[in-house]
Amino acid sequence: MSIDHPFTGYALNAVDAKGRVSVPAPFRELIATRCLVYAAGDASVKDNVLQIGTNEEMDRLLAYDAIAQRQISHDLRESVSDLPAAERRKMVAELGSGDLGATDRVTFDPAGRMVIPPMLREFAGIGEHALFWGTVDYFEIWDPIAAREAFADNLRKRKIVDYLLRERGIAA
Fold first, then answer.
1. What pTM does this model have?
2. Are 95 and 87 in contact (CB under 8 A)?
3. Could you tell me where the DSSP H helices lie in the chain?
4. What distance in Å separates the CA atoms of residue 172 and residue 88, rounded to the nearest whole number?
5. 7 to 35, 121, 139, 154: CA distances (angstroms)
6. What is the pLDDT of residues 54-97, one digit of tens each?
7. Torsion, CA 133, CA 72, CA 55, CA 118, rounded to 10
8. Which fold has domain 10-167?
9. Lower CB count within 10 Å: N or C terminus of the chain?
10. What's the CA angle centered on 163, arms 49 and 23, to 5 degrees?
11. How far is it, in rounded angstroms, from Cα 110 to Cα 121?
12. Residue 56: how many CB atoms within 10 A of its CB?
């Protein structure tokens, strides 16, 4: 499967005390489009569901829509397709327990509001604001100050984060 609808762009949104935050409208629209194009007629595919987990460094969250989940699962199975069946099942289970296996299912309402689970917020250090960053196949959710530090060697990304922080009146 080749997906021609990538996650691009960024947004900085407030997170309330209960962990509620809005998924940026362009990301919600893209999720709906991806579900319509790549899963038309499949009632099991929901366009208001994300699987969210941490990355290996635990410095940000990764958010996968249903289409990204399908693509990753397909790619994972394809990567071990030449192995004998028993070994293939073991490798799929081992590899799949990472990015997709260690995620929480999160739904968002029509306005895009979702609750980031407390454990994930704590692990990724997300406080009062969440920076959403498109990464083609999925999107990341960062604490904006942590993102700024992580982007220290990338002038374009850092300047974008600095602008978003200034726009919100947040000291970097």
1. 0.88
2. no
3. 25-38, 66-79, 85-96, 118-124, 144-150, 155-167
4. 47
5. 13, 22, 6, 19
6. 988 999 999 999 888 777 776 666 766 677 777 767 766 665 55
7. 80
8. Chemotaxis protein chec (3.40.1550)
9. N
10. 10
11. 22
12. 9
Q: In the chain, where are the structural domains located?
A: 10-167
Tell me the CA distances in angstroms from 76 to 79, 168, 172, one per residue in order. 5, 40, 39
State the virtual CA torsion across 102, 108, 114, 120 in degrees, nearest 10.
0
CB atoms within 10 A of CB 105: 10
Tokens read off for 22: 């809005």
**Separation between Cα atoms, residue 144 and residue 140, nearest integer Å:** 11
Amino acid found at 44: S
Six-digit token string for 105: 């299912």
**Alpha-carbon distance 51 to 65, whole Å?**
7
For 137, the token pair is: 């196949």
